Amino acid sequence: MIILLKRTVSKLYLKRKNNPMQKFFSVLLISMFFVSGGNAQDNNYAISLLSPALVKDANTVKRMEDTKVVISDGGKATVYHKYALTILNEAGDKNASFDCYYDKYHDIKYVEGKLFDASGNKIRSMKKSELKDYSAVEDNMMDDSRVQYYDFECKKYPYTVEYETELSCKNIFNLPDWEPVEHMNYSVAASSFTVQCPENYKLRYKAFNYTKNPDITQDKGSVIYKWSVENIAALQWQKYEPELYELTPTLMVAPSDFKMDDYAGNLNTWQALGKFIYSLNQGRDELPDNIKQTVHHLTDGVADVHQKIKILYDYLQKNTRYVSIQLGIGGWQTFDAKYVASKGYGDCKALSNYMHSLLKEAGIKGYYTLIKAGNDETDFQKEFPSNCFNHIIVCVPLAKDTMWLECTSNTLPAGYLGRFTCNRYALLIDEDGGKLVHTPVYNKEYNLQVSKINADLDSTGLLKLKANTEYTGEQQDILGEILTLPKDRLEDYQKERINLPSYTIDKSSYQTIKEKFPVINEQLEITANNYAAVTGRRIFINPDVLNRSGNQLKDYAERTSDIVIREEFKDIDSVEISIPGGYTAESIPSDVLIESKFGKYAATTKVFPDKIIYYRLNERNSGRYPATDAKALADFFDKISKADRAKVVLVKG
Q1: Residues 129-188 pLDDT 10s
Q2: Rounded CA gap, 99 and 76, in Å?
Q3: Which of 258, 303, 239 has the alpha carbon at shortest distance from 73?
Q4: CA distance 565 to 378
Q5: Rounded Cα gap, residues 42 and 64, in angstroms
Q6: How far apart are CA 524 and CA 495, in angstroms?
C-alpha cells in the first residue's frame, strides 16, 4: 500500500507529510515581497558570518527563508518562497536540491536558483534549460502530476544554494505549513512566514513551540499575519524522540471557507469537512444491475452480518486491483462504483466507494472513511480540523464491534488494518458530515513473534539449525513489507537480520495465513560455521541463536526530549540444541527476570546430557516517558543485551 491521494506540491508544501495539494493562481506582484537577484555582498552568505552556535552539530544551516501566502477574495492564492541553505558537509547534500510539483491545478510561475562559495561569492545561476522536468507518478498511477527538479551537485564544502519560487493555486483547500527546522542536524539563522488575506476572511492556525502572537497589520482591506524566528541551533537525533513539530517552532495553517471548482466547503469543523467530501462523492455509489444481483446471490442466504462482510470483502479482493488514479477534483472526488465494476480497478477512493456500495446493496451500513496513513504517523491534531488525510478505507460499525476494511489490499483479512492505518484517528463520512473515530490499537498480545529452533552442534563448533517462526499482527506487517523486496535486497535483509559470524541459508520458505490477525510462517534451515567457540576441551555456546537484542540507548545522559516508544510486541523463543557426546556443563547462565515499565524479559537455560534447552521471553510496552527515564531505559536495554549474550560452557571429560 502507498500514499494514495493527490500530491502536487513544491518543496515548501512537502513539509506537511502526504497532503493532497491544490493549485495556485497569481494575484499580486512578486515585487511586493522580494527583490530578485542581488549581488553576493547583499546576500551575506559568507561562512565566516555564521555564529559557532549555528554550526555546532549542523549539516545544513538555513541562512534565510521568506514565505508569503497571499489569499485573494476569490479563494485563490499565490505563494512566494525564497530560501538559502548553507551545506556544511556531505551529509547536508540531501537538502541542497530543488523540486517543485505541478499539474493542471498548479502553475509554476517563477523559479530561480543560485550557488555561492564559502566566502559568499556567487559561482553561478541555474539556467532554465537545466531544470529537469519529468513525471512525478509511479508505474501503477494515472496522474498528470509532474515535477521540476534541479541540483547544483556541488561537492566543495561549505557552499550555499539560494532558490526563489512563485506558485499559483486555484483554491485554498490546502495552505502550506511553516516548519523552519526541517530535519535533525539543521540549524536556522532566520525564517519568516507571512499570510495576507482579505479582512473579512477567517484564517485558522495552530502554533507549536512558538510563544509569541503573530504580528498582525492591516493594509488596504487586507490583514497580514507574520511569524518569524532567528538563531535556532541544530538538534541531534535521539532515539525514540517525539515528532519534530513537538521539538521546534511549527505553524499549521488551514482555511475556513474555500471553494474547489464548483464545490464550496468549510474547514472550521470535522463535520463540515465531512459534508464537503460527501458532496463531492454523492450519487457515485450506484452499482450496475449485474453486480447488484451478484451481491444478493452471495449474501442473501447468510444470516451472520460478519460473514456477509467477509464474503463481500473477499469478492472485492478477487475482482479488483489497486491502481492510483489521481484525477477528478484535486484527487479527492472518487470514480463511481460503475466505473470500478466495469474496469476492475481503482484507487483507494474508488475501491472504498465500491466496497461501500456493495455493503449498501446488502443492507449493511458502511462508512467511506478518511485517514492519514503511514507507519508511525502521529502528528494528527484532533483539535485543529484541516486537510491532513491521504488515504481512504471503509468502516463498518456493528452491534458489538467494528470491522475495518483496507480496500487497496488483496491479501489482508477482513477487519485487520495493520500498522499502516491502525492506532490513529479517522473521519467517518455520511450525509450528516464527518465524525472522528479511532482505529484499533494492537497491543503486544497481537504483535507476536513465536520461534521454535531445533539445532545440532558438533565438536568443531558448527551448528545446523531449523527455525520455525510465526509472525503475527504488526510483526508480520514488517516482514510482509520485506518479502516484497527484490531477491537481492531480500538477501541483504536476511544478512542484516541473522546475526551469525559465518553461515549459509540452506533453505527458506514463507507462508501467509489469512486469519483474523494475519500470520506469516517462516521456515529457515541454516548452517553456521564456527558458531560455538572451541578452546581445548571446552565449547562456549550462546543458546540464544537468532534473536539477540542489540538495542541500546547510549545518549541517555544528554537526553532532553520525552521518550516515545511506539512499537509494542512480544517475542517468545524456544531453542533445543543437541550437543556432541562426551561433553558436560561446566557453566550455565543463571535464570534472568527483568520487569520494568518498559516491558518484561525472562530467560532460562537448562543443560541435559545430550542437549541444551533454552527459553526466552521479551516484551516491549509502548508509551511516552519523561526524559528523566532515559537512564532506566538504557539499563533495561543493557540488561537484556547482557542476558542475550550469556554462554553455556561445555567441557569434555
Answers
A1: 898 887 766 554 556 677 888 999 999 999 999 999 999 988 899 899 999 999 999 999
A2: 23
A3: 258
A4: 12
A5: 12
A6: 13
